[in-house]
Design a protein that fits this description.
about 140 residues; Nucleoside Triphosphate Pyrophosphohydrolase; about 30% helix; globular
């Protein structure tokens, strides 16, 4: 899984948090998917033709009740990512196997824990909030198949 850690900008409400690449839909975007591909290019310099698009995994609500749609795909043409360090402090490649082990070890399978308990630690960071909800849902999809 490819994730980003937000920069440590004082006053920024999501500073240092782990998130998935993405952002807001702009007027010129071709819907949510178009915005997702544009944001991926802007944030990490990964273009649409490097991704094998799989599909949407659904809509999720942030803690301030914003609706976000999450898309998934496979990064086929891997190259070095480029990002603005004012916005992103680092890019994290998180093995799915470790997330699944945490999911099973904390008995998350089959239920959605409260937001205070739903966390996925990885190295020196903790994935929580809507990003953890998205990961939980994604991992549960594997158990269903």
């Amino acid at each position: 899984m490819l994730a980003i850690q937000k920069s440590d900008n004082i006053g920024y409400p999501w500073r240092n948090q782990v998130a998935l690449p993405g952002g807001h839909v702009e007027e010129n975007d071709d819907g949510n998917l178009g915005a997702a591909f544009r944001e991926l290019k802007e944030e990490l310099d990964i273009s649409k033709n490097q991704i094998e698009y799989i599909g949407s995994i659904g809509h999720f609500q942030t803690i301030n009740y914003r609706d976000i749609e999450v898309f998934t795909g496979i990064w086929r043409e891997r190259n070095t990512v480029k990002y603005d360090q004012k916005e992103i402090s680092r890019v994290l490649e998180i093995p799915l196997r470790g997330l699944v082990q945490t999911h099973k070890g904390r008995y998350f399978h089959g239920w959605m824990p409260d937001i205070e308990y739903l966390e996925y630690p990885f190295k020196d960071v903790v994935i929580w909030g809507v990003t953890a909800k998205i990961l939980h849902h994604f991992i549960e999809l594997f158990f269903e198949s």
